[in-house]
Fold this sequence. Notes:
Residues 36-88 form the YdgH/BhsA/McbA-like domain. The chain has helices spanning 2-19, 28-34, 50-64, and strands spanning 24-25, 38-47, 68-76, 80-87.
Amino acid sequence: MKKIISATALLFTATLAFNASAAEEISRQQVQEMNLDKIGVITTTGTNAPMDAKADLSAKADKLGGRYYVIIAAEERGRTLAEAEVYK
């Protein structure tokens, strides 16, 4: 009985982890093709590397309720600064 409960709990946890996804970076062309709705703009200013900025933008897009984001501005001045539009 304990094995069945453990297996069920493991399957449930795996399903939740699979369904939890981060916002995805896409292009402006994809926004038009997918006919997405813009829900806001996000920025990141305190990251050391471009990959950190992308991860930060993705997390902020998630918090805003978006599934996708398009980077509209980026700059490196010792730190990576970025701005993105969020879509769902």
